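Encode chain A's predicted structure.
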Amino acid sequence: MPATGIHHITAISSDAQANRDFWAGLLGLRAVKKTVNFDDPETYHLYYGDEVGSPGAILTFFPYAGARQGRVGRGMATAVVLAVPQASLDWWRARLDEAGIVVTDIELHGDARLAFVDPDGLPVELVGVETDTTGWGGGTVPADHAILGVHSVTLAVPTADATRQVLHQLGYTGDGLRLTADAALGKYVDLVEVGSASAGVGGAGTIHHVAFRVGDDDDELAVRLKVVGMGLQPTPVIDRQYFHSVYFREPGGVLFELATDPPGFDADEPRDSLGEALKLPPQYESNRAAIEKGIRPLLPATDGPVFVHRWEPADDSDRVLLALHGTGGDENDLIPLARQASPNASILSPRGRVDENGMPRFFRRLREGVFDEASIVREANALATWLATQADRYDFDASAVDAIGYSNGANIASAVLLLRPESLRSLVLLRPMIPLTPDPLPALSGKRILLLAGQRDPIAPPDHVEALATLLKTAGADITTTFQPAGHELTQADVQAAGAFFSNSSSSS
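Encoded structure for chain A:
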């Protein structure tokens, strides 16, 4: 038999925990399998789907810690398009907005869609479809709003003709840029002709391959022969434990997979506990201890805003230090500085969710020194909500969180204080500016804040820092401002000043 729609889509991510929080927590899919990349057992392979991981409802991810950002382009699938009940689009818009996700309303092929990105920048779209069925309701999303499965995939190819011919051999029909399979899920493949546009670059936030559903082993061999007959070079059949696979690149450069329906995800664990234990293929079972030691344990998914982050716990610490990087930094950048400033603190270090030409930031700016206030409000509230969730997850006192932030990180820390003052106890702000001026100002009595400015700073000049100090004093905060003989760069004197500030905080608490 020919392929009957999309079996699954596999993408690349960076942080496994943020990936699980987003797809299982925020989007409510079931985490149906936790295993390792069979070709690279030092990293996870995570599967999400409906209750049983039905073909057509599956998304899978290779999370490589610290993976560089990829770039969507020619020879790639460009977006994960998922089906939800038509009547649920407004519900999803509200849910995503509450999590601080930027959503764009678009229409394509007559379908209303919500477009957004996951924590690694992977393009995602929700399409409303008319349906009498419901999805899996055992997670964070009610069944009548739950994601049903894959709706379609979009392929960026030089020209459509050669790719279309391959899809015809896989059972899709159509002579235009939308091809259709006889399937309830994964029914559509949309082609975009990009000519000689830049080729995609694999990395976090990109789709690795698209798998098509081919029935059983005999069906797979029959379709494989068709692929050979087209002059392409498919791999032999590979046992992926939950399905059997054949891989090949179609003429436009996109990596395709043929995947069987059996054996299914309950082949090695009961359906009611799918995804709970780390499952390994037989060839790696003898190395289980080393594999488990080498990969970061995954915690249950949390609902709400998602930030890629690092958590560095300290024994018997009465302080959690929220470390907030500057433009272009990430969750690793400020940890050494935070550790020097407060050696005994636990450190929670998130990555900003806004992408500015490949550089992470905590909020959008319109141009240098001019901030997008709507973005500040959205991201500051999301960060504060996320911080409270992490207090429950990592079992720390939410009232004992101090912040140290540099540049853009200092500005988002100020914004959190001004909008959600209960979230932070004290702050060290390195090279800050005023992020916004709420009306009315919050009551900041009891909040201790150290502003560390550069006398020669062209980005956060002294008068801007003084304006921020005046604003915070007006709100009742206890402000200390120190001007260092420096520019926007940080110095050892900044580290020493931050260390003295936190030491004094400890002795006075």
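The radius of gyration is 25 Å.
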